[in-house]
Design goal:
CATH superfamily of the largest domain in chain A: Collagenase (Catalytic Domain)
CATH architecture of the largest domain in chain A: 3-Layer(aba) Sandwich
Order of helices and strands of chain A: HEHEEEEEEHH
Helix content of chain A: 25-40%
Number of domains of chain A: 2
Radius of gyration of chain B: 21 Å
Structural class of chain A: alpha/beta
Oligomer: heterodimer
Number of helices of chain A: 4
Strand content of chain B: 25-35%
Largest sheet of chain B: 7 strands, antiparallel
Shape of chain B: globular
Largest interface: A-B, 57 and 61 residues
Number of strands of chain A: 7
Strand order of the largest sheet of chain A: 2-1-3-7-4
Distance between the termini of chain A: 52 Å
Number of helices of chain B: 5
Strand content of chain A: 15-25%
Order of helices and strands of chain B: HHEHEEEHEEEEEEH
Shape of chain A: globular
CATH class of the largest domain in chain A: Alpha Beta
Radius of gyration of chain A: 22 Å
């Protein structure tokens, strides 16, 4: 009997301790931004729906400039794919499973060097998990050729626009900044890419 | 004060909720949201401004006006037949010129051309009606009727297109916004909003990017403040 009372009391203390431990873990993860999607994640935000951040099928126009194609591929390999929740791959097949379609051309004096178009395709999911595909990445290389002179610039633009297709906003850190030539995601944006498929 | 287990748990939940909402997305208010959202996209912009004064000083023309009509604009693309994009032309009736002079022959209309990055000419034409823009099967938006301040740049790129616009440009030339922050719409409460801009949440930190600082200024001075700054010599 004595042994049974001890077991019951221990079990209650154990449950309370576990509950506090769980709460502490959640708060800690949220505070540190570790693999918990913060509410600021832009997925589901009208005009910036993510194209999909699980398997990210990226169609390259066969007319895409070879330097831009090569450097867009580098961004996929070194900026997107190191993230455990993203697998991007290139295709030259225009089809409905394309999440993103990449083009370059002379689009006139648009006021932008590169853009990630709004979604006008099919919408799925809901809330912050809303996705829409395909989205389009446009490099206005024909009108602003000097902006694409260097590999760093091309990698910055491709990292930046592909980041938008994953639902990311501009951010002072990394390639989502509106200045500089960084071609990796900053830690803030990198953390936002967790858990949404 | 001694907290009960229940209160401690409640406190934890509230803390978690506050932490999670530290930076949430701001939506554009008003019934015109659907219209503007169709024209809004993310981009690496050529021009960036951190203040209204700086943006006004750089613009070719700054007007207060409202949209009178919309039409399909020019078409661009490459040899790839799947690569076509088109602009939307907003014919804006000028109420007041704050800086610069409209093009000769433009009278009281200015043509503002917005290149749409995802629409082909056919899909855009299909989506347009006389009174608004059909965005998809479930959304229909009317043309916004309210006033806005337009910070404009002459595009000076006629001839870069594959096909001309459906309508003539006022004064023979289209303008574009200097940047996505170059349209500031008057809110019913006298506030100013920037519906073309896609700006991420930043209220868990100080505004750092130029557009964030500009947004903070607009929120501070309101629509009339923007008009006053843009019209000051």
């Amino acid at each position: 009997m004595e042994r049974r009372r001890n077991t019951t009391g221990s079990s209650l203390r154990h449950r309370v301790a576990l509950r506090w431990l769980g709460a502490a873990l959640v708060v800690t993860f949220l505070a540190l931004g570790l693999r918990i999607p913060a509410d600021a994640n832009s997925f589901g935000y009208p005009g910036n729906y993510a194209a999909n951040n699980g398997n990210h099928e990226i169609y390259f126009s066969i007319y895409l400039d070879s330097d831009l194609a090569s450097d867009t591929q580098l961004s996929m390999t070194y900026a997107l794919n190191p993230h455990p929740d993203i697998y991007s791959y290139r295709t030259y097949t225009y089809r409905s499973s394309n999440d993103v379609r990449v083009y370059d051309g002379n689009y006139g004096n648009t006021g932008w060097y590169a853009a990630a178009g709004p979604c006008v395709g099919s919408v799925g999911g809901s809330g912050q998990g809303t996705y829409c595909k395909p989205r389009q990445v446009r490099y206005n290389r024909g009108y602003y050729p000097s902006a694409f002179d260097t590999r760093a610039e091309r990698r910055h633009f491709s990292c930046h626009e592909l980041g938008h297709t994953l639902g990311l906003f501009h951010d002072p850190g990394g390639c989502m900044s509106t200045s500089g030539t960084s071609y990796y995601f900053g830690s803030h944006n990198y953390d936002h890419l967790y858990f949404y498929h | 004060m001694q907290l009960t287990l229940h209160n401690k748990w409640l406190l934890t939940v509230v803390s978690v909720a506050l932490a999670a909402s530290a930076c949430s997305v701001e939506a554009t208010a008003g019934s015109d949201t659907a219209f503007w959202s169709a024209l809004r996209f993310t981009a690496s912009e050529v021009e960036q401004y951190a203040s209204v004064e700086e943006m006004a000083a750089s613009a070719d023309l700054v007007v207060v006006g409202s949209i009178e009509s919309i039409a399909v604009g020019r078409t661009w693309g490459s040899e790839d037949p799947t690569d076509r994009l088109v602009s939307l032309v907003l014919q804006v009736k000028i109420d007041e010129v704050l800086k610069g002079k409209p093009l000769p022959g433009a009278s009281d209309i200015v043509s503002v051309e917005r290149t749409m990055t995802s629409f082909s000419p056919d899909t855009l034409r299909e989506s347009l009606t006389d009174r608004g823009l059909k965005i998809d099967d479930s959304t229909f938006a009317e043309i916004p009727k309210g006033r806005a301040v337009w910070f404009l740049r002459v595009r000076a790129d006629l001839g870069s297109e594959l096909a001309p616009a459906d309508v003539p440009f006022a004064g023979g030339q289209p303008y574009r916004l200097v940047s996505s922050m170059g349209l500031i719409v008057e809110g019913p409460d006298g506030s100013g909003t920037t519906p073309m801009a896609v700006i991420g949440p930043f209220h868990d930190r100080e505004p750092k990017l130029p557009e964030e600082r500009l947004l903070a200024e607009i929120a501070n001075v309101g629509f009339q403040g923007v008009v006053d700054i843009a019209s000051s010599p």
